[in-house]
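Course exercise 7: structure representation. Students receive a sequence record and must write out the corresponding structure in token form. The form below is the worked example handed out in class, using cysteine desulfurase (406 residues). Read each field label carefully; the graders check that inputs and outputs are placed in the correct fields and that the protein name is recorded exactly as given.

STUDENT ID: A-19
EXERCISE PROTEIN: cysteine desulfurase
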Amino acid sequence: MDIQTIRKDFPILNQQVNGHQLVYLDNAATSQKPTSVIQTMVDYYERYNSNVHRGVHTLGTLATDRYEEAREKIRRFIHAKSDKEIIYTTGTTQSLNLIAYGYGLARLGKGDEIVISPMEHHANLIPWQQVAQKTGAVLRYFPMEEDGTLALEKVRETISNKTKIVSVTEVSNVLGTVNPVKEIAKIAHECGAIMVVDGAQSTPHMAVDVQALDADFFVFSGHKMLGPTGIGILYGKQELLEAMEPIETGGEMIDEVGFQSATWAELPWKLEAGTPHIAGAIGLGAAIDYLQQIGMDQIQSYEESLTNTAYELLSQIDGVTLYGPGKRSGLVSFNINGVHPHDVSTALDSEGIAVRAGHHCAQPLMSCLKCESTVRASFYFYNSEDEIEALAKGIKETKEFFGHVV
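STUDENT ANSWER:
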């Protein structure tokens, strides 16, 4: 991979922040966008801005074609069987809410169990809390090992014939843990449960095959994988999506409407009420084109090298605590002893280094780690080893500065 050539495709990276060359290491929050994605969306607004599925005029037809072509690109990207299994949403959060309320609410009852992990993002936690409270179901958690991984023997012990839904992130947004979701899905299915996979942090960084995983539902966001904000995907096995009732109704998702009742359109439109984020969908299609041009296997291999370098360099700094397993995907979360994470982030920002500090929408996990927040540096394929070294240098300088202050 020619990183310097790749970086030229991302105009935002070519700037200075606080007098220093920007080092953008907040990719788990959102990724930057290549010129091809930006121009694809500009092209939509400048040349064929129109609503989809409604008009037979030239612009409307072209917009519809591009919108549905993007759906097909997404289908191929994650290896779904049919484009009917690809539902456009606003992002991972809405996708998980659709599953919780559109599928879980009608099928869970008193004593049924939902099982998740302690490392879930709030988007894969709060909807299940709410559905459990409304239905009388019980929300349970897999035990987590000290290194932030899940042991399959304990997964087997936790899932039972009472378990109806298992929902797990494929990659933790705090620890970088890569969970064995394929194996967890097999255990869940043996007990008659369905498997939901949060792919928000995995889909941008590794090849995804929803059929090989045997995921019943799989969700992800466009903005973490070079696409725009406000667009995401809910994949579901067709028979499960067919059985779901829409939780949003109105235009676009109907077949026939009378004065007292209505019938729904076929998939995928049944679950896509209202005017969609057309430019976002087309932009996500362009993002997938870019990722596939480089190759997901190449991206994963390069990022593993970057992440290993970061982990090794930070491990050598006295007073730095790292969280999560040694083998991880795309990020490092850490704290400097005696320095608040927000102060660390502010100090690094003064050097042009963008990282994230906070609980990362994972407060239960923070309690497991016995801290309130961490600093997170997260990487993408346009990051370089020089930037990893700049991070390590910035951490050392921050530690020294606050050591003198204290």
